[in-house]
Specification:
two-stranded antiparallel ribbon, alpha+beta, Ribonuclease Rh, Chain A
């Protein structure tokens, strides 16, 4: 339960409990898996650990910066190369219409038995992204305190609600 709160919480006030989000994800996706609720979320967290997105981005030379731009295609290819499956990269813009595109979320799809990462079954491979994106620095205080061997945060990417993804 602690790990679910750390990586799949619901940040809306006044509660940081993810129960509402977990219920929605379970009802939408988990019930198709033939797993118990507990096993479904355990496997989802295990796959999350396998897909260390910050490490993948760093190995590709994509590091947080206020000035650098990265080719969306390079990010997508690096993710595909390491994960072995297509993903959906989501961006947002700093100033709505005129701002730079910035990396916002990376959606990873998993098999119905929650045992493996699979190609995302959508034609869209990006949402609201230009061909060049920024990966802006983030506040490390928002990340879990555990670190990996290379002294990087231990895969601090939070799991979005699957229902947030418009495919």
């Amino acid at each position: 339960m602690d790990e679910l709160n750390d990586y799949w919480s619901d940040a809306s006030c006044p509660s940081k409990s993810g129960l509402g989000r977990w219920e929605k994800v379970w009802c939408t996706y988990g019930t198709c898996s033939n797993l118990t609720e507990s096993e479904y979320f355990k496997r989802a967290l295990a796959l999350r650990a396998q897909a260390n997105l910050l490490s993948i981005l760093k190995r590709n030379g994509t590091v947080p910066s206020t000035t650098r731009y990265y080719k969306l295609k390079d990010i997508q290819e690096a993710l595909y190369r390491i994960l072995g499956a297509s993903t959906v990269v989501e961006c947002n813009r700093q100033w709505f219409i005129f701002g730079d595109y910035q990396l916002y979320k990376i959606h990873i799809c998993i098999s119905s038995n929650a045992k493996s990462i699979i190609h995302c079954p959508t034609k869209k491979k990006s949402i609201n992204c230009g061909s060049q994106v920024k990966f802006l620095p983030f506040d490390p205080r928002e990340l879990p305190v555990t670190t990996s061997a290379d002294n990087m945060p231990a895969n601090p990417i939070k799991m979005p609600a699957a229902t947030d993804m418009d495919m």
